[in-house]
Amino acid sequence: MTMRISGKTRVCAVIGDPVEHSLSPAMHNAAFQKLGLNLVYVAFKVTKNGLKEAISGARSLGLRGLNVTMPHKNAVINYLDEIDSTAEAIGAVNTILNEQGKLVGYNTDGKGAMIALQESGIYPEEKRMLLLGAGGAAKAIAFQAAQEAEELVILNRTPENAEQLAELLYKKFGNKVKGGALLTEVLKKELETTDILVNATSVGMHPHVNTSPIPSDLLRPDLCVMDIVYNPLETKLVKDAKAVGAKVVVGLDMLLYQGAVAFEIWTNCPAPVDVMKRAALDKLAEQGESH
After folding, report:
1. Where are the alpha helices (DSSP H) in 129-271?
2. Is a pLDDT exceeding 90 seen at residue 288?
3. Which residue in 4, 12, 103, 283 has a CA-CA distance of 20 to 30 Å to 168?
4. Which residues have a catalytic role annotated?
5. What is the pTM of this model?
6. What is the mean pLDDT of residues 193-207?
7. What is the pLDDT of residue 289?
8. Is 102:82 a contact under the CB 8 Å cutoff?
9. CB neighbours (10 Å) of residue 102?
10. Each residue of 14-64: pLDDT tens digit?
11. Percentage helix, strand, coil, to 5, in the chain?
12. Is residue 174 over pLDDT 90?
C-alpha cells in the first residue's frame, strides 16, 4: 500500500542526536499505513542548541506528536506546557502530544518495559526484581517496577545514583526498594533471591557485542532476564541467559511497546504491534547489512 501525502496529512517525528539509525520511522509508518491513518513519521536530527527552536517549530507547524530521544529527554521538559505525573517523577519525557497547540509530555519507557515482560508471561507482582543502571531508561523502568514488584533492587556503577533513586521511590510508593553498587560480589548475593533481572545499562550494545554486565556463571534457569539493548538483537547477556535455560525478553520488545504506547497517545487507536515489530526487524536487518 502506498502512502498518500495530502494537504491534510499530519506529521509525527523523532528528535535526537543522532537519529539516523532510529527504528521509529519504520515502525510508526507501517502502523499508520496498516490502519489507513493520514499520518507520516520522520526523523529530525536536533542538536542541544537547537532544541528550543525545534519544539517551537513543532508547535508552529502543527506536528501531531514527537518522540524524544538522547540527549533531549530531560531538557525538553522546559519547553512543554504540561507533563504527566510519570514523566514529572522521572524527570524525562520521550513522547509529546500536540493538542491544538498545547504540548503535553509523557514517558512511555517504563510502561513499554512492563508490557514487554507481561507479553512474555512474566508478571512482576510478588516477584523480586533486580535492575541494573540508574540512568534515563532505568529510572522509567524503576518507577513502574516500584509500583508492581514485591521488591526492587537497583544497582549502578555510581552507587549514590542508585541509592538516591531507591530513596525517592520508597518515599513515593512505600514498597521495598534499595540501591547499591554494581559490583560482582553484590550481584552474586542479590541474584540468589532475584526472580526478574533487567539490564538497563548500555553494556553489550553495538559495537561492544562481546560484553555483558553479568558473569554467565551467575545466571540460572529459573531467572527471567530482560535486556533493554536491542542492537544487537541478541546481546551476550541474552545468549548467556538462553544457554542456561532462563526465560528471556529482548530489548526490541521494550522499544516496540514503548512505541505502541506513544502511537496510542497520538492516535487513540490500538497499535498494530505485530506490524510494527515486523517493520522494526526488517529495518534492523537492513541496517545490519549496511554496517
Report:
1. 136-148, 159-173, 184-191, 236-243, 251-267
2. no
3. 103
4. 73
5. 0.93
6. 95
7. 56
8. yes
9. 11
10. 999 999 999 999 999 999 999 999 999 999 999 999 999 999 999 999 999
11. 45, 20, 35
12. no
- Cell numbers given for 222: 529459573
On average, the pLDDT of the chain sits at: 95
Q: Using 50, 70 and 90 to split pLDDT, how confident is the model at 290?
A: very low
Per the listing, cell 536487518 goes with 285
Q: Which of 102, 84, 106 is nearest to 93 (CA)?
A: 106
- The position carrying cell 559495537 is 207
In total, the chain counts a number of residues equal to: 291
In 3D, which of 102, 56, 83 has the Cα closest to residue 94? 83
* Strand-by-strand arrangement of the 247-249 sheet: 176-181, 151-156, 128-132, 196-199, 224-227, 247-249
CA atoms within 13 A on the CB side of 262: 35
C-alpha 80 chain-centroid distance: 21
Rounded to whole angstroms, the Cα distance separating 184 from 260 reads: 35
Nearest CA to 223 out of 113, 139, 128 is that of: 128
For residue 271, CA distances in Å to 122, 129, 139, 196, 283 come to 21, 28, 25, 27, 19
Question: In 10 A of CB 120, how many CB atoms?
Answer: 15
Q: Which helix (H) or strand (E) holds 278?
A: helix 273-290
